[in-house]
C-alpha cells in the first residue's frame, strides 16, 4: 500500500509546495508516522488521505520554522486551497492522475535526458538508487550524483512544477516513455533481491501506459510501448517455477501465458507500425508478438526476429539491442555465428556490468563444447547477477559446464 500511495503522495505535494526535496522528506515522514500509529490505532478507512494530511502538516510546520519561506507559505496556502483543491479519493480512475502529470513535468527540456529519467524513476516511481543505476548500466554512486545534480538544476533554474501545455507534450513524450519502460524493465527483471520479478512495478507501468494511451491516442509509440509491455507481461506466470526459480523461454509452459493480454498487445502492434517510420517500442513489440505467437522456441520465426532487430539497430542503436540480436542470430544460424557477434561486444563499456552478456556467451560456448571457457563466462555472470533466481540458474549452468570439463576431473 505504501508503494502504491507514495507516488500519488509525492506528486500531490510537489504540485502543492513546488519543492521536490521537501516533498520527499515529508512523504517519508508521513509513512514513518503511519508505521508507528497504524499498528496501534488501526489502518484508517482512507489511508491515502491520512498520509496526505500528515505530510501536508509536516510540510507546513517545516516552512513555518524557516522564516525565509514565510511569505512563500502564505501564498501557497491560499493558492493551493482555493485554486487547486486535492482531488477526491474516489476520483474517476480513468482520469490521468498526478503522477503521470508529474512525469511530464519532470521531463523538462532544461534537464539532460538521462537526468530527467533518473530523477523521475527515483522520486516518482519509487525505485531505489541502485535500481535506477541498473536501468542506466552505471554504478550507484554515479547515479546518486546524477539525481542530486538534477534536483539542483531544478532549484537553481526555477523550473516550474506544472503540467505542460499541449504544444509541449510531443517534445517531452520520449522522456516519459523511457521512464515507463524503465519502470517496467525493473518489474520484469528485478535488479536485486530474492525475486526474479516485481509484478507491482510492471503492473504500475502498464496502468500508467494505458492512461497515456487514452491521453494521446494518435501517438504511435505510446501504442507500441503499451503493446510491448502487454506482450511481455503476458508470460509472467510461466517465467518462474513453484520455488520462484527462473524458467527460460524454451522451458516455459505456454499454456500459462495470458492469452487475453497477448491478444490486446497484438492488436496494438499494427497501430504502432502504421502511418510513418517505425519507432523503437513498436519494433520491440513486433518482436515480442512473434515470440508469443510461436508454439515453441524451435518454431519461432527467427529470421523475421533478426530482421526486426536489424531495424531496431538502425532506429535505436545500443549495445543491449546488439546483444539481443546476437542471441537471435545464434538461434537462426547456430551458436558459432552468435558467439562471434557477442565477442565483438566484449569491449563495450556499457555491457561490463550487465550479466546477460557473459551468461549468453556461456550458453553458446557450452553448446559448442568449449566447457572451460563456458565455465569462466558463467563465473563472470555470477559476479554481476543481482537476484537469487538468476544466480541459482547460473550456478546450475556452471556446474553443468564444469561437469564436462576434463581439466576439472
Characterization of the model:
With 409 residues, this protein is mainly α. The chain has helices spanning 2-17, 20-41, 47-65, 70-83, 98-106, 113-123, 129-136, 140-157, 169-188, 199-215, 220-233, 259-273, 280-293, 302-315, 319-333, 335-344, 356-367, 371-384, 388-403. The protein is globular, with a radius of gyration of 23 Å. The termini are far apart.
Spans of at least 5 consecutive residues with low confidence? 80-95
- Which percent band covers the strand fraction? under 5%
- Counted by DSSP, the helix tally is 19
The radius of gyration is 23 Å
Span between termini: 53 Å
Q: Sum up the overall morphology in one term.
A: globular
Order of helices and strands: HHHHHHHHHHHHHHHHHHH
Mean pLDDT: 86
Structure summary, number of beta strands: 0
Largest sheet: none
Instruction: Give the helix proportion (percent range).
Output: 55-70%
- Structure class: mainly alpha
